[in-house]
Amino acid sequence: MTNSEALSSEALAELRRRYRLERERRVRPDGTRQYLAADAEFGYYAADPYAGGTVEREPLRDGVDVAVVGGGFGGILAGARLRQRGVERVRVIERGGDFGGTWYWNRYPGIHCDVESHVYLPLLDETGYVPEWKYAPGEEIRRHAVRIAEKFDLYADALFSTSVTSLTWEESSQAWIVTTDRGDEFRATYVVTATGTLSELKLPGIPGIETFEGHTFHTSRWDYAYTGGTPDGGLTGLSDKRVGVVGTGATGVQVVPKLAEDAGHLYVFQRTPSSVDVRANRRTTAQDVGADHDGWARERRDNFLRIVSGETVEEDLVADQWTASAGLLEKLLPSFHRRGDRKAFEAAYEVADAAKMNEIRARVERIVADPETVEKLKPWYRYACKRPTFSDTYLQAFNRDNVTLVDTADTHGIERMTERGVVVGGTEYALDCLIFATGFSVGVSGVHSGKLPVHGRGGIPLLRALQERGPRTLHGFTSNGFPNLIHLGAAQSASSVNYTHVLDEHAVHAAALIAAAEAEGAVIEPSPEAEDAWLAVLAEGAPDHAWFHAECTPGYYNAEGRGRPNAPIAYPHGAFTFHELLKRWREESMDDVLRARTPAQP
Ligand code: NDP
Predict the structure, then answer these.
(1) I need a surface site. Which of 48, 292, 309, 484 has the fewest CB within 10 A?
(2) Low-confidence ranges of the chain (pLDDT < 70)
(3) How crowded is the C-beta side of 364, counted as CA atoms within 13 Å?
(4) Distance 110 CA to ligand 1 centre (A)
(5) What are the two backbone dihedrals, phi and then psi, of residue 413, each rounded to the nearest 5 degrees?
(6) Cα-to-centroid distance, 563 and ligand 1 (Å)
């Protein structure tokens, strides 16, 4: 279908019909329950293959100014911004063996960031680092995380291979008691939680998964001892192996070309194809990205955020597929349709969406040789239904003789596993190794998951407060009843495809709150009235995403086809406006959130 045909109402109606059919073919009655967590008998899937064993240490019984839960970019940025405010005792507690979060765990072959490195890597101005590629490999990003932690002296007090097990507000000391799975019990005047969103790996609940006698692991715990090689490839251990990979999301798209290069034979078990657009990665110089003056990275990052938030800019500095497709991805932000009639906007949006997806499907036809494989690789849904992906090697991998695409849509995924391999459509595929690129559970990490019990003022559990009152915050960061506890994340704030930028703005805000509380001798705790006012802002003009996601193929964006119950209510006007709002609020007054410290109990 050409783009001009896509503009006709008949073509649009046909697309709608096809999208509906493809969705119906995939929705499963068990929804999010189809997955297994990596615990109990599957706990070994989550073990840390990179830490090189646990270093024994004595449990801590001391006190710090700030405990930061999580050592990914959120925690690192919180630490860095606190240091800039002169806070001395900052202790980051991290489950992994080092800083890096996502980039610590995900080291699979082919891993890259799909957001431009010059806007994704934070604190480039502050560290003087200029990335070498437009889209950086994972290891470069992980090393940058370490660079920031070193520069801001976060290693001194950090606890690695340690999980926080509880946070309890102690009225008498006006501090949090932090306990961990290493027997620590220490006090922190403030706690910042930065526990991430896609941090708990999930496995498909395939019948018989436990019977398979070959080797298995998840992409976020890559077993280089088995495969050989590095994230750059050279997986010599696979040269005589029949390897299967389950999953063709953003991870699958990056890992498949590397596996294809080295596996004896590769079977790609696909349920829903990703949209795979042009990558065009290339080496960059400081000159290419205008890294010739102070503040260049901040300007570039702001420029990117403005564009993907629907703001008008004079020049598109990043000029890639994200900025070109910004209107399709953030389509429901009021900034994209505030100038026109909503219905007309949605009609125009559907046409642009169809044109984009036709282009994506035509790309499959151009690159892939086998007509049957072409049909299987074409995505039939709207652009923003699933995370778009970008690759100049993924589709090409299916032209290799040692690669077979096995479509599992008709059976809602792999049917079952046996001792020898996997069964799809009654055919058994014998395998030596099966790699799960099956992603992560959403909303099950950190303080909202029940895995990290939090007891606030008067011993009230955070989860009970959430059940009884619903989520209530000021700006997404702080809640009444939970003094000096600051959450970084998207709930009741705003997010963006460039998530590290969002985290940095949140870290700046958290550090400012803590600095103000220190200066005033106060605690950080919003009044119920301030929370009410913020909830009213969230409700006003909140874009209705439900209709859009209800029509999408299933995935973690729409709770496996059930709409979007997992999505936290977000600030309706996008990340750019949200950051401006926070800045103004900090400049004008922080009174809404500072309270007198309760006198210590005798
Ligand atoms: P996803 O959840 O996006 O993909 C999981 C894949 O596993 C899907 O293709 C899914 O199919 C498939 N799957 C699940 N169960 C089965 C089954 N029973 N049988 C067959 N297939 C199955 O996880 P990813 O790890 O790919 O990506 C997660 C997120 O991580 C991304 O959306 C992105 O936000 C981030 N990411 C970012 C990168 C970056 O460069 N910035 C790189 C990689 C990831 P189906 O679609 O049908 O459910």
Answers:
(1) 292
(2) 1-6, 330-340, 443-445, 541-545, 563-568, 599-602
(3) 22
(4) 15
(5) 110, -175
(6) 18
| Model pLDDT, residue 338 | 58
CA nearest to 209, candidates 441, 422, 428: 422
501 CB near ligand 1 (under 6 Å)? no
- 397: which 2 tokens? 């991998």
User: HSE of 361 in the Cβ direction (CA atoms, 13 Å)?
Assistant: 19
Mutate to test the pocket of ligand 1, among 271, 275, 320, 423 (most ligand atoms within 8 A of CB): 271
- Residue closest via CA to ligand 1's atom 6 equals 247
Q: Of all atoms in ligand 1, which is nearest to the CA of residue 555?
A: 48
Q: Which helix (H) or strand (E) holds 247?
A: none
Q: What is the reported pLDDT for 489?
A: 85
User: Is any ligand 1 atom within 6 A of the Cβ of residue 149?
Assistant: no
Q: In angstroms, what CA-CA distances link 112 with 34, 107, 194, 391, 408? A: 28, 9, 22, 10, 27
Q: Which residues of 306-321 are buried (b: 16+ CB within 10 A; e: fewer)?
A: bbbbbbeeeeebbebb
Alpha carbon nearest to ligand 1 atom 25, residue? 439
CB-based burial label for 188 (10 Å; 0-12, 13-18, 19+): buried
Contact 512, 586 (CB under 8 A): yes
Task: Go through the domains of the chain in sequence order and give each one's CATH number.
Answer: 3-37+201-279+341-440 (3.50.50.60), 63-198+442-526+571-596 (3.50.50.60), 296-328 (no CATH)
Residue 347 is predicted with a pLDDT of 82
What is residue 366's three-state secondary structure? helix
pLDDT of residue 71: 98
The DSSP output letter for 294 is T
pTM of the model: 0.94
Query: Distance (Å, rounded) from C-alpha 166 to C-alpha 171?
Result: 16
138 lines ligand 1 (CB under 6 A): no
CB contact at 8 A, 189 and 484: yes
Question: What pLDDT score does 566 carry?
Answer: 46
Give nearest CA residue, ligand 1 atom 37.
Answer: 250
pLDDT, residue 601, reads 43
Listed in order, strand segments (DSSP E) in 399-501 are 403-407, 416-417, 421-424, 427-430, 433-436, 440-441, 454-455, 485-487
Looking at residue 591, its pLDDT comes to: 80
For ligand 1, is residue 271 a contact (CB within 6 Å)? yes
Distance from the CA of 102 to the center of ligand 1, in angstroms? 14
Quote the pLDDT of residue 327.
76
Residues 418, 421, 424, 429, Cα dihedral to 10°: -140
Instruction: Give yes or no for residue 437 CB within 6 A of ligand 1.
Output: yes
Taking residue 34's Cβ as centre, other Cβ atoms within 10 Å add up to 16
* CA contacts within 13 A on the Cβ side of 511: 22
d(CA 261, CA 236): 10
